[in-house]
Design goal:
heterodimer; A: 246 residues; mainly alpha; MetI-like fold; 10 helices; B: 240 residues; alpha/beta; Rossmann fold; six-stranded mixed β-sheet; 8 helices; 34% helix; globular; Putative hydroxymethylpyrimidine transport system permease protein (chain A); transport (chain A); transmembrane (chain A); cell membrane (chain A)
Chain lengths: 246, 240
């Protein structure tokens, strides 16, 4: 996507939004105009920045921790057939529990601070990262297994020198998904119980009928998600290029 | 490198309960044996049995070296696909065996082997920058770097163009001289050029086929090589 295309898409969205406001004649406390939202954003810029910082940190730490845990689990599963047999059904079953339903429990266990939001983010991205990377690790070309076996490689060294580098593009695919899910985890955590963060700010603004501020926080959250998606996309591209020797 | 042993593989192989072949194969010490046969007769299975790799079937018989020692850690392998790791440069690919065993790679020796196969200028290139022939040269250098007395080759030159293939055959014959080599191939011309001994594999069993009197590698255009190749091809076509 080129910068010009992004700018055109943003202008189109703003035009549609403005058209909806004008055509429906909705009052500003139901659907504020883009200009009103921008004014609210500017007026509350410090408040929004402070809360965006909190959400950004939660998302980033959750993403890093979830990736490390997910990648380590995938490697563990690929190294041990027994662990794979025991853990894989458990992992798939864990997906039947909606993570959102756990949010109140997590708040109870980890408190109203950042901890519960980071855990929520980790939980929401753990499965896509583990699943994608594990799939990549299992798909190492059979020829490499043969070569490594004749060279006297241990299971771990095969994993380290061949399977992991070869599976980096698959890890990149998991990371791309994680980048989309991670902000959802943090914001849901903030909705359930928090005193800081963009999710908290949105609830607060909604409760006080400051819909323009709520929209402003929502737009900042969307920008944060897009920035994260682009950043992680670049990282995933690098992993892929490395694995292909480009 | 320890002195190359001769190797005997004798027994019956069955796949899913159905017999596939009966083999009585003797690889002579320090010589090239070429194993020919039609697709599906079990050539690659024999190679995998010698390598100690899983085959999916059951082998009842014995695999033994003439010196009585185990074959473990004395056999290296080169496949049709070069199996170069795309994320490592050529030099690091040549050293991969040491890394996989957790020992320190001898990079100076690897560089010398690359020079020997004519790739000294490409040591720091990535595999994707190399032609098919250059990639197989790098794979040969990696095989040599293992410095094993027994080398098993599974159609390593079959994907190359005719000219490059002939060059690679000369290079491999020279570089692997003195080792016990088993070359699995579909190509009668390749067997006629490179083999000290030709063995044909069919469902009926293994049979030794006479070679031309000259020592390998034989000239492609030598009358004896051409005659040997023609007879071999005719026999393989009749056996179909």
């Amino acid at each position: 996507m080129r910068g010009r295309d992004i700018l055109a898409a943003v202008l189109l969205a703003l035009a549609l939004w403005q058209a909806a406001v004008t055509l429906t004649g909705a009052p500003h406390f139901i659907l504020p105009s883009p200009l009103r939202v921008m004014q609210a954003a500017w007026a509350s810029r410090v408040l929004i920045a402070q809360n965006a910082w909190v959400t950004g940190i939660e998302v980033l730490l959750g993403l890093i921790l979830g990736t490390v845990l997910g990648a380590a689990t995938a490697i563990g599963l690929a190294l041990s057939k027994r662990a794979e047999r025991l853990m894989l059904p458990l992992l798939v079953f864990s997906q039947a529990v909606p993570v959102f339903a756990l949010a109140p429990l997590l708040t109870l266990w980890f408190g109203y601070g950042m901890g519960s939001k980071i855990v929520m983010t980790v939980l929401i991205i753990f499965f896509p990262v583990t699943s994608a990377f594990h799939d990549g690790l299992r798909r190492a070309a059979p020829g490499y297994h043969d070569l490594a076996a004749t060279m006297g490689a241990s299971r771990w060294r095969f994993m380290r020198h061949i399977a992991i580098p070869q599976a980096l593009p698959a890890l990149g695919t998991g990371l791309r998904l994680a980048a989309v899910y991670a902000p959802i985890g943090a914001v849901i955590g903030e909705w359930v119980g928090a005193s800081r963060g963009l999710g908290y700010l949105m609830l607060l603004a909604n409760g006080r009928a400051k819909i323009d501020l709520m929209f402003a926080a929502l737009i900042v959250l969307a920008c944060l998600t897009v920035a994260l998606h682009l950043g992680v996309g670049k990282l995933a591209d690098r992993l892929s290029r490395y694995a292909h020797g480009d | 490198m320890t002195p190359p042993p001769g190797i005997t593989l004798a027994g019956d192989y069955a796949l899913g309960g159905a017999p596939l072949f009966r083999a009585n194969l003797h690889l002579r010490a320090g010589e090239w044996t070429c194993l020919l046969g039609r697709s599906g007769t079990g050539k690659t299975t024999i190679l995998r049995l010698l390598l100690g790799l899983p085959t999916g079937g059951h082998f009842a018989g014995q695999i033994a070296a003439t010196d009585g020692a185990s074959l473990q850690n004395r056999v290296s392998y080169m496949a049709q696909s070069d199996l170069l790791l795309p994320w490592l440069n050529v030099l690091d690919n040549v050293c991969i065996g040491a890394r996989l065993r957790g020992t320190i790679p001898d990079r100076a020796r690897a560089a010398e082997l690359l020079r020997r196969v004519g790739l000294s200028g490409a040591a720091h290139h990535m595999p994707r920058q190399l032609s098919g022939g250059m990639r197989q040269r790098a794979a040969l250098a990696r095989t040599l770097c293992e410095d094993r007395p027994v080398v098993l080759l599974d159609e390593p030159f079959s994907a190359l163009d005719a000219g490059t293939r002939a060059d690679m055959q000369d290079l491999a014959a020279q570089a692997l001289a003195g080792r016990t080599v088993l070359l699995v191939t579909h190509d009668p011309a390749e067997a006629a050029r490179l083999a000290h001994q030709i063995v044909l594999l069919s469902p009926q069993g293994t049979a030794v086929w006479p070679t031309a009197p000259q020592s390998p590698p034989r000239a492609i255009d030598a009358p004896d090589t051409i005659a040997s190749q023609s007879r071999l091809l005719a026999h393989l076509r009749c056996a179909a």
